[in-house]
């Protein structure tokens, strides 16, 4: 399977960041989970920043234990100004040299995998976050924690779209609890380090980010659909198909993430996603018919044993805070993002999952 990321997407991210990216010049950035979907985008963005933008190159230190990296993430080759270290962040990490930014993107985010690895999911978001916060404090570094929109749980309709102030509706006992609750504890750790120690922390709550680089074996809705379309198979839609989501294309998401890393108000959490359109899974299938130009059939099926059934019925972000404080504005429409993603999967997916 091809694991490349489109160079046009990387250029777009860097171009949209503009002058603010210059803050990375000559800095050392430690990135956890660097071989995952988001981590590989961060890596490519820093490569391009070093090649074409920064006066002094940024040094990127990548940590990953490769537990869910998949085929696309297995390579641990470094490069100029990039150091790759196989390390599990639930264990303390010492680095010989200054660190200016810690981006804690390690985590087990796919429901398929956190169902299989519930204790590891808890540990990376709790013990791992604690270790990385300590590293940031020791180095006087800015710290960014990747939380999740899942911390809002199944929201009260009065609070959709969800603002950062919404406290959520989350079960502490259930098949998703290991992920949802551990991310909530990770956010609490950021809050404590900021308030007790003055660590400059930020939390990112991503909303359904998608794009090239997602692997078939992630078992997310769009990779699942792409794989079955390529295999000429009907799509499987879990449950009623009436559950809704908004989807954010990767270039928009990465611009938002990096704006938080560079400009986030210390101690604050930010929703990063695209607030519109909010579509049901059945609506998404209908939309795909016009995107891929093929006849698509689908089946409504029960949730498989490998996928947690208590998913939120709605998921839509209020991004006013990120717009006002960071200047974050998504630019890629859902249809345009889907076209880019499915064009990439034509060469990347085998089909038939």
Please render the helix and strand layout as text:
Layout: H1 7-17, E1 28-32, H2 37-52, E2 59-64, H3 70-73, E3 82-86, E4 101-104, H4 111-116, H5 118-139, E5 142-146, H6 177-197, E6 201-206, E7 209-210, H7 221-230, E8 235-238, E9 244-245, E10 248-249, H8 250-263, E11 269-272, E12 279-280, H9 281-292, E13 298-301, H10 320-326, H11 334-348
Parallel strand pairs: 1-2, 1-4, 2-3, 4-5, 5-6, 6-11, 7-10, 8-13
Antiparallel strand pairs: 9-12
Short description:
With 353 residues, the protein is an alpha/beta fold. It is built from eleven helices and 13 strands.
Calculate Rg over CA atoms: 19 Å
Structural class: alpha/beta
With strands numbered from the N-terminus, the spatial order across the biggest sheet is 3-2-1-4-5-6-11
- How would a crystallographer describe the biggest sheet? 7 strands, parallel
């Amino acid at each position: 399977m091809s694991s490349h990321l489109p160079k046009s997407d990387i250029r777009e991210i860097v171009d949209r960041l503009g002058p603010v990216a210059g803050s990375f010049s000559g800095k050392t950035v430690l990135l956890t989970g660097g071989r995952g979907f988001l981590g590989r985008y961060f890596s490519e963005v820093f490569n391009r920043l070093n090649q074409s933008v920064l006066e002094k190159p940024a040094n990127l230190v990548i940590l990953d234990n490769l537990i869910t990296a998949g085929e696309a993430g297995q390579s641990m080759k470094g490069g100029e100004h990039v150091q790759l270290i196989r390390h599990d962040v639930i264990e303390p990490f010492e680095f010989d040299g200054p660190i200016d930014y810690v981006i804690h993107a390690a985590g087990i985010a796919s429901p398929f995998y956190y169902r299989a690895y519930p204790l590891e999911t808890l540990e990376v978001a709790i013990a791992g976050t604690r270790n990385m916060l300590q590293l940031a404090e020791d180095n006087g570094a800015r710290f960014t924690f990747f939380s999740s929109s899942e911390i809002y749980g199944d929201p009260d309709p009065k609070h959709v779209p969800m603002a950062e102030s919404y406290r959520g509706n989350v079960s502490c006992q259930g098949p998703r609890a290991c992920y949802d609750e551990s991310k909530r504890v990770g956010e609490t750790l950021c809050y404590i380090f900021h308030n007790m120690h003055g660590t400059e922390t930020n939390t990112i709550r991503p909303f359904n980010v998608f794009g090239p680089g997602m692997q078939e074996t992630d078992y997310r809705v769009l990779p699942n659909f792409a794989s079955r379309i390529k295999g000429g198979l009907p799509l499987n839609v879990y449950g009623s198909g009436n559950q809704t989501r908004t989807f954010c294309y990767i270039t928009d998401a990465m611009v938002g993430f990096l704006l938080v890393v560079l400009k986030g108000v210390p101690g604050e959490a930010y929703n990063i996603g695209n607030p519109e359109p909010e579509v049901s899974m059945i609506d998404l299938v209908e939309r795909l018919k016009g995107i891929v130009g093929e006849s698509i059939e689908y089946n409504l099926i029960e949730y498989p044993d490998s996928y947690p059934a208590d998913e939120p019925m709605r998921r839509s972000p209020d991004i006013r805070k990120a717009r006002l404080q960071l200047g974050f504005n998504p630019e890629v429409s859902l249809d345009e993002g889907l076209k880019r993603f499915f064009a990439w999967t034509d060469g990347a997916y085998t089909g038939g999952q």
